[in-house]
Structure formats: structure tokens, C-alpha cells
Structure prediction request, 271 residues.
Amino acid sequence: MPTCKLCLSEATLRNSHIHPEFLYRDLYNDQHQLMGINGEGHRGYAVLQKGLRDSLLGDCCESFLNREYENPFLRDWIDAGVPETFRDEGVVYSVKVPDYARFKLFHLSILLRASWSGLGTYADVSLGPKHEERIRRMLLGGDPGKAWLYPIFGYGVADLRGKEPWPILSRPMVTELGGLRTYASIYAGVAWNIGVASHLSREFSTLGLQPDGTLHVIATDFRDTVEAKLAADNLRAAEAGRPVAAELHGRASRMEYRGVNGIRGIVRGHR
Ligand SMILES: [Zn+2]
Prediction:
């Protein structure tokens, strides 16, 4: 019998989402299709009908994560319309999340699932046994840990010229911020950066999510993000027969990238 990766008890494993399905909600077109931009094939994207999943958890922890972390985030962030406030370029918005612990642990739960997953899309996401075990215990115990541990910092990402959302979900990508190894993943209108280290970073401590629930979000135009550049690169390279590795998910009906770091590309999505 396999074991559930979160509670370690024997369980029939479900096909668990890495990012909860509600984060893909705005990406689907009328036919419930989204673009998985992977730079492969002659188009550079695959049409998907569902978000990526892997067998990770039993019913025990599927419902636990759903109840404790996913539903509160859906209610307090997405349904509350918070991302729609980040619309003026360069402005630093200060928001207060109602439940610091659940909010922080929600983001960590996605990062941990991506780290556990054996899917090729998440091959670069590897927290290592020490961090995986620490985050696993934090999630089970509802413990957000010290403020400096796994700090979270966000860039609001939208089409700021059109004052519209930029419907995209990106896998966690490794980067470095404030001297910390950082994973950045865009969903729910924000590029969430999570620092992974066992020491303090001053930049993250000042700007990151605070234990009183305060979060500073800098509004950024999607054209200035590395994810937009990667998506444009992928789609253009596939056309030219030179795939580059990266994967992002975007709305199938309409995707446009113009003038991203000098790259001009307009992509008409699958209809
Ligand atoms: Zn479990």
C-alpha cells in the first residue's frame, strides 16, 4: 500500500493537483481548454483540459489541504477580488491578509507538492529532504514557523495598460532574491516568491509577508516579467523548430505578447 506524502499513513493515492484547480479557473476558454506552453511541437504549446496532477496524497490530506488552506485562500484572496486592486504600475500596495498562518502555509503547500512531484514540469523544483520534512510538519501542525523562515514576497502581475488581469499560471522557477534561493510562481494575479533557506534575509524580512498579515505587493506589468519573455521565447522558438524548456499555462482563447524585452510576438491561441 502506498503512503500519503503529507501524513505518511497508508492510503490509496489520488491524482492530486500541484496547484489547486481553482487557480486555473480563469485560464480556460469556452471549451474548457488552456494552453500549456512548453516550447514543444510546431506550435509550442499543448492544449490541456485540466491542471497538472500527480499521485501524491490520500483522501485524508486532500480534504485536509482543501479545508485548511485552499478554501481560505480562495475566499479571502480570489473571491474577495484582492488581485484586482494591483493596477497602477510601480505602486507598492499594502494589504492585510486575515489569517497569516493559513495564507503562508497555502503557498508552502503548493511549493511542497511541486517538490514532491515527479512530473517533468517540476523537475527544477527540489527543496531537498530537510526543507521538505520541515514544511510537511508545518503544514500538518498549522504552524507558519518564524517570520524569517520561508518568507514570501509578491509582485502583482497584470496587463496594467489594459487594466486587466493577465491570466497565467507558471510553475515555480528557481531564482535568487535578497541572497536567498527563491522559487517564483505566478497564480492568482501575483508572482509569489518564496525564499528557501534556514537563515534570515533582510530584504525579505522588510518587504515580505509579516506575522500580523501585512503583505506588500508591487504592481508590475506582465510585459516586464521573465515569465512573459519565456512564454514568447517558447512559442517563437517552436515555430522556428528550436524548443526551449519552460512551461507555463495561459488562457487558450487569447494570448498576446508584444514588445517583451525587445521581442515582438503576437500569439493567437487555440480556438
Ligand atoms: Zn494523508
